Amino acid sequence: MHPVIKIILFLIYAAAVAFGGATILLAGAVLVVALYLPGPGERLLLALRMLRRMRWFFLSIALVYLLFTPGRLLFSAWPWGPTVEGLVGGGQRIASLVLIVFAVNLLLRTTLRPALISAILWCLTPLAWVGLPRERLAVRIALTLDAVDSVQVIYRHRPRDNECDEEPPTDSRPASLKARLWRIGATAQRLVVAVIEQAESAPTEAIEVPKPSNPPLGQWLYPLLLAALFAVLSW
After folding, report:
1. Rounded distance, CA 149 to CA 209, Å?
2. 158 belongs to a structural domain
3. Total domain count for the chain?
4. What CA–CA distance (Å, rounded) separates 107 from 12?
5. Range in 30-44, 89-103, 139-153 with the lowest mean pLDDT
6. DSSP string over 50-113
7. Full-prediction pTM beyond 0.70?
8. Angle at CA 202, nearest 5°, toward 111 and 135?
9. Across 135-159, average pLDDT
């Protein structure tokens, strides 16, 4: 399948699950399962790792929806607390984000980087009509993708807390909140310093942006069918 068609399919899918209801989410989940089952298990593991990194973001969404959405209280004996509407709304938002993460991972793992950049260039063709440099944006996307992999490698090989010269603040509790926050701040500081040092020592590298190509006419049927499916389910 042409990379441009993949990107358009992803955009339709992401918009549908982001704004759709329970039926759309169920259909989106079925599509994700159908696409992941025939592929290698490594794709699923990578998607689960992406979700694991977002666990605190999901928790914050759940707390905001549960505690600050007006409606019927889950526990009627309490004067204030989580609501039924908050539980439903938060669950739908988290489910939509999970499905989008699976879709993003599938797009990145099934499309070579040069082909992905070429497809993005094709989608950004209207910018060239008004004189904006779309090639510069494509180069930045390539550098960002490379930087993500580099930062992940640096993070995995970072020195552990017990290897640091400094010691976290002591507290009467063995695992105090103050000590945890200190460790998070120290890890972030070391990561930023390592990324800056690597960027300053990295050699200048030429990036070749491939020429965009038009997708086959017959493949436009795929996004039309997907959009029609979500449109029917939303009625």
Report:
1. 19
2. no
3. 1
4. 13
5. 139-153
6. HHHHTHHHHHHHHHHHHHHS-S-BSSTTSSS--BHHHHHHHHHHHHHHHHHHHHHHHHHHSS-H
7. yes
8. 45
9. 64
Provide, rounded to the nearest whole percent, the portion of the chain with pLDDT above 70.
Answer: 74
Kindly state the DSSP code that residue 124 receives in the 8-state scheme.
T
Q: Is the pLDDT of residue 27 over 90?
A: yes
pLDDT at 32: 94
Residue 72 resides in a domain: yes
Q: Do 119 and 3 meet the contact criterion of CB atoms below 8 Å apart?
A: yes
Q: Give the whole-angstrom CA distance, residue 121 versus residue 177.
A: 46
Tokens of residue 183, six digits? 């460790």
Q: Are 123 and 106 in contact (CB under 8 A)?
A: no
Rounded Cα gap, residues 106 and 231, in angstroms: 23
Single-letter residue type at 164? C
CA-based nearest residue to 11, from 105, 119, 104, 145: 104
Are the CB atoms for 62 and 94 separated by under 8 Å? Answer: yes
Tokens of 196: 């800056």
Structure tokens, 106: 């599938």
- For residue 15, the enclosing domain spans 3-132+211-234
Average pLDDT, the chain: 80
CA-to-CA distance for 90 and 165, rounded, in angstroms?
42
Q: Is residue 174 situated within a structural domain?
A: no
Question: Does residue 116 register a pLDDT over 90?
Answer: no
Taking the CB of residue 187, how many other CB atoms lie within 10 A of it? 16
d(CA 139, CA 30): 35
Two tokens at 38? 């025939």
Please report whether residue 161 resides in a domain.
Answer: no
